[in-house]
């Protein structure tokens, strides 16, 4: 007999409880409700004691409001990490007396918590039957599998792995290994086309920087030769910058420069040691490598080849392999932008406003275009780990809202009666490809002050909010802001804007004049990398963005957005780049 939803849930919850307390199942479970900071403003739901007849659980809340603990970021991903932000106690009693049906509010909390469990590493155990899908989650293992296929040559390497059919639709129905039946082979020829574009570029051509699709495709092809052992191939092997003064943005900008050199010299770029991935979250071969967060820049075979060439005297002498030291920092940071595609930057859409007018041209149009392409390429596919971090962040910020939505459409009998999920082709192949839900329209705002004063004109939070108000005048349905900032002072000021809903992560923030490097050191390597990267991706996916182009970080976010179909969202910058 199939267990009912409630039992399945209970089983999962008690497994967790057993794992947590290493003793016998205890009377008091401690459940981590890691609730987004800003959610507290929205849902101060005091959930009354909940009884369910079947299992005799009595959930009682110690406090009315949901409280938080900042440790989430450092531990939210680990197996037991979910519980490290201990904020609520759930008491189990043996009381089997006939109870009340759970109220909607209680059901919302149950769903929210069930999703949190699903997000744990071993959550898949009961993924199937009992819990409705979380609209704000991506299926990370499924996506990673799909990306992996998009990132490798077809079985005999004779064509690009992309099709004219999106995502799973193309993968499932056109996959060469599954195309035994003649109808599928027919599809094969119809939809496979040699001209398919890389699946990581979305939006129409006009919605992206000029030639984005073509350039992304070419870079991929150059970085993924069919045979890495071909003696004519040349390589550039480089570590990521690792001086403490280099922020993530600067490291990425440096790597874009190296990619430009590689393209210009017809080499394959292979990246090596990435200090920011040198922490316990990055396991196995992704430890200390870019592939912890995003797919590697080239194939494993080419990486291996480059490492073996490093040991060959001859390869060095013949210049088959070079390293970062073969190039001056000027070549890396201010070198020639590849001209392999002409000068598409001459056609950059003027959709950026600085000081009240659209920016038509400036001295570094070529670099702006190139960095956007390079970043887009390097970040084309999220790793499973990164996907997971984003699920956690979305759950923390938007999880309760999502649960409320889902409960409205759920049978009142849930969780007593399991739900019926449809596994039809539509759900599985077509609708599964949509982006995870976030409360759209969403404005992402990156407010950077602190030690940046030395490199750009620093602008107060009030100015950012004026720009936000300006966007809202035109798009009146906008009222959510995803705020990323290092400054506690900025967080404190959000209280002055009650007409906006702010979402942000509760990490320890910079106070006073602490330098960025010192600040990052206090956070620890894992948090100081995971937190900004999550914000980076959120900023790319948000509908609007406000930031200071003078900061490398915002400059790169802008590049990601302009190669993610967001050109026409426009960009209001509080200042300009110092080199323009
Ligand atoms: C928050 O987490 C830290 C470290 O995990 C812990 O020391 C602290 O007691 C927690 N605070 C609360 C209020 O639970
Ligand atoms: C963030 O976490 C800290 C604990 O480290 C807590 O003291 C603080 O109240 C939290 N911030 C908010 C806005 O809840
Ligand atoms: C993710 O996709 C896989 C493969 O289709 C499936 O087995 C798994 O149940 C899915 N996970 C979730 C949480 O939906
Ligand atoms: C590769 O596969 C395609 C289609 O399956 C086939 O037409 C072609 O002959 C194969 N090429 C080689 C070199 O095996
Ligand atoms: C790169 O540097 C190494 C060591 O400094 C040198 O032996 C090699 O010739 C250089 N390669 C090129 C192409 O300049
Ligand atoms: C679940 O869906 C299947 C197929 O759509 C249907 O036959 C079955 O009756 C449904 N069960 C419930 C409990 O709705
Ligand atoms: C930073 O602030 C501290 C005290 O808050 C002060 O002693 C120090 O001189 C300041 N440093 C700079 C560079 O302003």
From TrEMBL:
<dbReference type="GO" id="GO:0046921">
    <property type="term" value="F:alpha-(1-&gt;6)-fucosyltransferase activity"/>
</dbReference>
<dbReference type="GO" id="GO:0006487">
    <property type="term" value="P:protein N-linked glycosylation"/>
</dbReference>
<feature type="transmembrane region" description="Helical">
    <location>
        <begin position="29"/>
        <end position="50"/>
    </location>
</feature>
<protein>
    <recommendedName>
        <fullName>O-fucosyltransferase family protein</fullName>
    </recommendedName>
</protein>
<keyword id="KW-0812">Transmembrane</keyword>
<keyword id="KW-0472">Membrane</keyword>
<keyword id="KW-1133">Transmembrane helix</keyword>
């Amino acid at each position: 007999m199939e267990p009912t939803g409630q039992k399945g849930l209970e089983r999962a919850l008690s497994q967790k409880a057993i794992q947590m307390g290493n003793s016998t199942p205890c009377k008091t479970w401690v459940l981590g409700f890691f609730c987004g900071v800003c959610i507290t403003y929205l849902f101060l739901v005091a959930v009354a004691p909940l009884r369910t007849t079947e299992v005799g659980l009595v959930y009682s809340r110690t406090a009315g409001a949901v409280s938080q603990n900042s440790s989430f970021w450092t531990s939210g991903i680990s197996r037991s990490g979910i519980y490290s932000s201990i904020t609520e106690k759930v008491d189990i009693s043996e009381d089997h007396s006939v109870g009340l049906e759970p109220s909607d509010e209680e059901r919302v909390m149950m769903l929210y918590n069930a999703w949190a469990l699903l997000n744990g590493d071993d959550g898949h155990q009961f993924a199937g039957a009992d819990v409705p899908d979380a609209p704000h989650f991506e299926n990370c293992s499924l996506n990673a599998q799909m990306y992996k296929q998009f990132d490798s040559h077809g079985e005999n390497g004779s064509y690009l792995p992309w099709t004219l059919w999106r995502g799973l639709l193309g993968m499932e129905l056109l996959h060469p290994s599954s195309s035994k039946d003649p109808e599928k082979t027919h599809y094969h020829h119809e939809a496979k086309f040699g001209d398919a574009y890389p699946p990581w570029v979305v939006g129409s051509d006009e919605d992206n920087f000029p030639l984005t699709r073509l350039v992304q495709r070419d870079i991929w092809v150059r970085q993924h030769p069919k045979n890495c052992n071909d003696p004519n191939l040349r390589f550039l092997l480089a570590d990521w910058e690792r001086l403490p003064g280099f922020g993530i943005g600067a490291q990425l900008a440096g790597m874009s420069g190296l990619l430009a050199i590689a393209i210009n010299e017809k080499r394959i770029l292979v990246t090596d040691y990435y200090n920011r991935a040198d922490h316990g979250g990055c396991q196995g071969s992704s430890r200390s490598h870019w592939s912890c967060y995003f797919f590697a820049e080239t194939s494993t075979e080419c990486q291996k080849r480059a490492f073996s060439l490093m040991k060959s005297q001859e390869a060095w002498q013949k210049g088959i392999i070079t390293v970062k030291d073969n190039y001056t920092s000027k070549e890396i940071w201010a070198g020639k932008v590849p001209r392999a595609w002409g000068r598409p930057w001459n056609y950059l859409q003027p959709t950026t406003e600085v000081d009240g007018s659209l920016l038509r041209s400036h001295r570094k149009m070529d670099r702006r275009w190139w960095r956007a392409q390079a970043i887009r390429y390097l970040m084309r596919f999220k790793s499973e780990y990164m996907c997971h971090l984003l699920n956690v962040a979305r759950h923390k910020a938007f999880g309760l809202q999502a649960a409320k939505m889902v409960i409205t459409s759920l049978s009142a009998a849930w969780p007593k009666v399991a739900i019926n999920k449809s596994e039809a082709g539509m759900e599985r192949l077509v609708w599964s490809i949509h982006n995870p839900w976030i409360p759209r329209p969403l404005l992402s705002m990156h407010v950077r002050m602190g030690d940046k004063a030395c490199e750009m004109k620093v602008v107060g939070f009030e100015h950012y909010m004026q720009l936000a108000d300006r966007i809202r005048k035109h798009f009146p349905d906008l009222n959510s802001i995803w705020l990323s900032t290092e400054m506690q002072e900025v967080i404190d000021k959000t209280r002055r804007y009650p007409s906006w809903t702010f979402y942000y992560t509760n990490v320890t923030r910079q106070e006073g004049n602490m330098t960025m490097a010192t600040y990052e050191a206090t956070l620890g390597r894992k948090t100081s990398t995971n937190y900004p990267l999550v914000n980076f991706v959120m900023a790319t996916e948000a509908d609007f963005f406000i930031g200071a182009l003078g900061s490398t970080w915002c400059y790169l976010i802008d590049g990601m957005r302009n190669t993610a179909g967001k050109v026409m969202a426009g960009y209001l910058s509080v200042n300009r780049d110092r080199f323009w």
